[in-house]
Amino acid sequence: MRLLSLAVAVCATLSLFSPPAPCATYYVDFGAGADTNVGTSPDAPFKHAPGDPAATASAKQVQLAAGDTVVFKGGVVYFGSISISWSGAKGVPIVFDGNTAGTFGTGKAVIDGSTPVSDWKRCASPDEAKGNVRWKEIFYADIPKPADWRGVNLCDTDSPLQIAQEPDPSDPMFQENVREFFLVNRKMENSFPGTVSFEPGTRGNSQTPLMGIIAGQPPVIEPITGGAFSITLNEPATIAAIGIRPQPNYAAVKEFAFLADGKELLRATLEKDKREMQRFDLPSAVTARKLTYKLLSAYEGETNNWTKIARVAAWTPGGKNVLDADVSSVIRDETNLVQSDPRYYDGMWVGVHGGNNIVAYQQVKSFDPAARQLFLTYFDGRLYNETRYALYNSVRLIDTPGEYSVEPTENPRVWRVYLLPDRLVDGKPDGIAFSTRETGIALVNASHIVVRGFTVRRQGGRNASGIRVQDGEDVIIKDCEVTLVGGSGAGISAVGTKNIFVDTCFVHHCTVHSRGIVLRNCTDAITKNCRLVKNTSTALDYYGCTGGAVSGCTVLDHRGMHANGLTFYLGCKNIVVERNYVARGNVGLTIQEAENVTIRNNILDGGGTTTCLGIWPGQPIKNLSILHNTLVRSNHAVEWQTGLFTNSSKFDGLVVRNNIIDGLCGTPPFPKEAVFTHNLYTRLGPDRKDKSFGEGEFYEPDLTKIFVNPEAGDFRLKTGSPAVDAGTALDVPDDFDGTKRPQGRAPDIGAYELRSP
Fold this sequence. Notes:
The protein is mainly beta. Helices cover 3% and strands 41% of the residues. Among the domains are: 121-164 and 396-433, no CATH class; 179-189 and 328-392; 193-315, Jelly Rolls (Sandwich), CATH 2.60.120; 538-714. The strands form 9 sheets. Strands 1-2-5-30-34-38-42-45-48-51-54-57-60 form a 13-stranded parallel sheet, covered by helices on one side. It has a 13-stranded parallel sheet with strand order 3-6-31-35-39-43-46-49-52-55-58-61-62, with no helix packed on it. Strands 4-29-33-37-41-44-47-50-53-56-59 form an 11-stranded parallel sheet, with no helix packed on it.
């Protein structure tokens, strides 16, 4: 067998540098293997792989070493999770193989993180479906209580199912499309019987609203000296004592004053190291509506001019804290909250658009049909002037095949899944499973490892990953398909790894808020020839990586909340981004706080809906080169959503040459020191509306004069295109397809070079 021959060759290589050691090939067949087998023969495979916590007997005893290979049977679904902490040696890795030779089974081995849902029952009455009019089509089954309903990740064998939602999204893969949410033209309210406000001259932070001082979510107060805020009650209250609880680990307030209806009644000193509520009696009880707390000074040594206050109190003579309210967020919607039953929304969750452009999930507490008010657990983030929201996770909302909900039962350990299936086998849902494992394959401080040839699917949980790498060095992940990973993790992730190579992987349809590939604080990180399709967060993220490349990747249909195509944030250095095609999603490429990054030979197609390449603010961008790219079809309906956009004012070396750019916009404008030459603009944008072109730059808005078939996404240059021979010589010797430059008297502009006849 080819695999055995490879193992012999690896062992022979190893013997040149050390005494001969037995290199082993182990076989794993989850369907027909046994952990008591020898495992070293395809006829006597293990059931569980070495590294699986469920392994027993001989499989558990295996200690992998350099040159060892573990082959999983192709076409067999392995229900488990494998954690690898062994290391190979330089040039002699440990290999986990999903049947790449095709000699042990058929097709790829599958690592599955789910548990099948069984014992489906069809609802026998409307009551069993909580009144849903489609009750006859709805099935239910019980599962163990999940950690979070959003992490259940109910899936078919090869496609995700969608949590019940109203209004229904146009694409159920993207359930946080706030443009399709219910819209109320007012800010979301709260149930506190009064208002809170900063006094003139005092500032806070929009991400931590001042109402948190009542609801237990500490807000920012600035300045410490003189900063003041007031609580104005709807009805006057008699106050005999007040209190302040400082927030630990923030600047310590020393002195403060308390005012009732504008009259100062108390000055006092807070104990520096006491972080509990500190109570202060007033000279005498007072009846007032407006209660003002004014900070006067900070303790010596505090350098920040702002702090956080955890909570304040105001007690009546009888000891009742009038500020100790169970605060709810309140949505008032006369158009959409039309149910007459006050219990109709019980158990539902509401996704609210707020904070820093996020969807926050708040549970319904109650509903007032007469007032059309829905009371929610308190949302402590920034509120927008208009409220966008959607309802989630109730059998009452199920109205589309493929929708499900997962809800508690009377047994606290058991929850119930309701499903309107899109297909039946023998009269019941088939192939349905829910995620019970966060990780498929985990490499933990393991070095010199190759993982290749697997399908990894249906992992779920808050930090779920199909393949996860932590620390270690010299790791190759090759020819793997990762799909249906649900949660806030990623299909493939790595943290702190040196020399990691992700090659020819297909990561797609990862659900909830999952990235495709994310590499964080890695060194010499290369992602090559990968295909990323329709994941619910950003397709590919590099955070704080030093050295490496992203090349030859295809990125399609990433339209979730904060989901961009390619992202390079938090101090990436010495990275080359080349020959990638990004389309049908949000911003094609985003970059921030980067140094020595070259972006060349990429096609970023905005599809008429977004910016193609965005440079965000933060620490200075140093030595950024944007060369020979095609940045096309930005959103012409929004002035700033151009081919190339920045809202950063900090650049130290920016070169933009030989690109086709669908408009230029900077807020503030791009710096005069930046080098812009030999670019073809298909849209001017704010920074070129006066046609103040650099050397060799010009304007041609008609894409049909430039490209072979722009409407079909074919951005090769046509014969006679104005981009032909219009560039300047750069150290970019070939184009998107590998064609040598130049083919004519000078390089062509854009990602493609027109081939000579």
